[in-house]
Design a protein that fits this description.
Elements: H1 3-49, H2 54-79, H3 85-101, H4 103-118, E1 126-129, E2 132-139, E3 143-147, E4 153-157, H5 158-163, E5 166-168, E6 174-183, H6 189-201, E7 213-219, E8 224-233, H7 237-254
Antiparallel strand pairs: 1-2, 1-5, 2-3, 3-4, 6-8, 7-8
Helix pairs in contact: 1-2, 6-7
């Protein structure tokens, strides 16, 4: 019997004996592949419509793809009669080893998901994160990038961000500006209030409601310390801050209000 005839008998006999299994395998192969593609496409649309940033959306979509294809391949191998218990155990051990070797990365990843979900800040916000201050330039799944006022880039791991105190100056449209003004002892308190009020009145950026406040706050070691509080728009904060400091200094000089220096009394003992 020619070899091709023997081959045909073997193939035809195999298909005859296993046609049900082969049919199920073919259905799972085709239908499973289509289902995986539909789920991935649907997940992609959900990510785009959600408020997650691009980095988080792409990462989560990659995780979904990987999990779906793993389940798909294991199902096909199971239909072929391949023992999948050992394969699943091997994948579990491999995943455990990877997680132990990448603890810091996984910590940053988990923190990044929390940050993106809770949104304590967004790109463009001016924030304090621990001892670092700056505008949020980019939020990725692993780190957050700040730009300082002097144009330095600070990259902070998300695990550090999540464990730090965060102050967001941009969430509210208005912001209170607090200044401490020091004058010499003997200065007329009402005169200081009047001079500062005149400076404030020249600034249209300063809100009248809530009304500005200038009060004597402390009797310092060398000075009377006043607290000035005014409300401004977030966008006007720094300009008003610098302008008030300059103009109040000039106004004090014009009104002969003395700004004190630190003093140190030295007592000299004369030996007889």
């Amino acid at each position: 019997m020619p070899w091709y005839q023997r081959l045909w008998e073997f193939v035809s006999g195999f298909f005859y004996e296993n046609w049900q299994r082969i049919l199920i395998f073919a259905l799972v192969l085709v239908v499973g592949f289509i289902v995986v593609k539909i789920i991935i496409a649907f997940s992609g649309k959900v990510m785009k419509k959600s408020k997650l940033n691009n980095a988080a959306g792409d990462f989560l979509l990659s995780v979904i793809k990987a999990l779906l294809y793993i389940v798909y391949i294991i199902a096909l191998l199971s239909l072929l009669g391949v023992p999948t218990t050992s394969l699943v155990a091997l994948l579990s051990v491999f995943a455990l080893a990877i997680s132990l070797a990448m603890q810091n990365t996984i910590s940053n990843l988990a923190s990044g998901v929390v940050i993106i979900a809770t949104k304590p800040f967004e790109e463009g916000d001016y924030v304090d994160i621990g001892d670092n201050s700056g505008s949020v330039q980019h939020i990725s799944i692993f780190s957050t990038r700040l730009v300082t006022p002097d144009n330095k880039i600070i990259v902070i791991p998300n695990s550090t961000v999540a464990s730090s105190d965060i102050v967001n100056y941009s969430t509210q449209p208005t912001r209170r500006l607090d200044l401490t003004l020091s004058v010499s002892y003997g200065t007329d308190v009402e005169k200081v209030k009047s001079v500062v009020s005149e400076v404030i009145a020249r600034h249209e950026e300063i809100f009248t409601d809530p009304a500005p406040m200038i009060r004597l706050a402390e009797h310092g070691a060398n000075s009377l310390n006043f607290t000035l509080r005014v409300w401004v728009k977030n966008s006007d904060y720094w300009n008003v801050n610098f302008d008030l400091k300059e103009e109040i200094l000039k106004a004090f000089e014009s009104a002969d209000i003395e700004i004190p220096f630190n003093q140190l009394d030295v007592h000299v003992l004369k030996s007889e």
